[in-house]
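assembly run, all chains below
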Amino acid sequence: MTVVDAAALTAWVREFARLVHEQRDTLTQLDSAIGDADHGANLDRGMTAAVAALETTPSDDPAAVLKTVATTLIKTVGGASGPLYGTFFLRASGTLDGGDGAALAAALRAGYDGVVARGKAERGDKTMLDALGPACDALDEALAAGKALDEALGAAAEAAAQGRDATEPLVARKGRASYLGERSAGHVDPGAASATLLVEAAATALAGRG
Amino acid sequence: MPVGLVVVSHSRALADAAVELTRGMLPGRELAVGVAAGDVDGGLGTDATAIADAIAAVDSGDGVVVLMDLGSAVLSAETALELVDDDVRERVVLSPAPLVEGLVGAAVTAAAGADRDRVAAEALRGLAPKQAHLGEPAGEG
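ok done. output:
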């Protein structure tokens, strides 16, 4: 059964863009504590451009939808989240094969692996991986347990949020925040916060699709 | 043809000034230097698609050495390699050298007709003259 088609992925991207726009100031505030205070603005600019690109060049091909998002983010974000989210969508696009929950989970896992490779980071470094990794695990587990995709995405969103919250006491080991050393502890990582929105957007946009 | 060079920076002004400084050291010499700097609106940022275009523009078949500032410039340069053709990718070296010193070293070597690996090695050695002069070993102090 095809539940993850181009329209569903477009809805996911639009919902992510909406959440990023809505929480733009919160993301930037988190980034001003430990980074260079541009995460909300950068990602909002990138996702607004991605939604516009999908409107200009809509596609029935799910992989093409993800590719358009990737290249748009790479081009328009400017900061580190451009190549990182861009690589996430690029690898997800290259892996997506089929329209069921397992295909989506494999694509998200490939995206996660791409971010690991691009950022040379791992879980616990206080990055977006701390939200994305638990989300991929929860999604795989729920699908393996026979849960429906929307329920599995709900579990993934919950795992992402827990992972995001767990970044607060961590000391940053990557990016501008790593210059702060111990002083980076006590703040939630902005990348983990935006990555949680990405997973929450998937749960919302694909709700009721089985 | 000389090895191509690409300067990646968050700042267009910084990249242009580094190139200007380098050209000043090589008066009258032909240099294939591309710049990919700033975001799409001219603000601070990096754009992997612009880097990929710059690599393609300076690639004459003898290789390209990419110098970059920091942070997302590094990530964008790596991402750019996913966007260029396979045969071009094999000819590109992303240099961990310091931007200004590395660029000057690379440009002088490239202008002398050295191959890509030699140019990349000279870029990497870019801090050596300053370190020798100031007597400060790398990574200490």
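Chain B has a mean pLDDT of 93.

The interface with chain A takes residues 10, 39-40, 43-50, 71-72, 75-76, 78-79, 82-83 of chain B (CB under 8 Å).

not gonna interpret more than that til we talk
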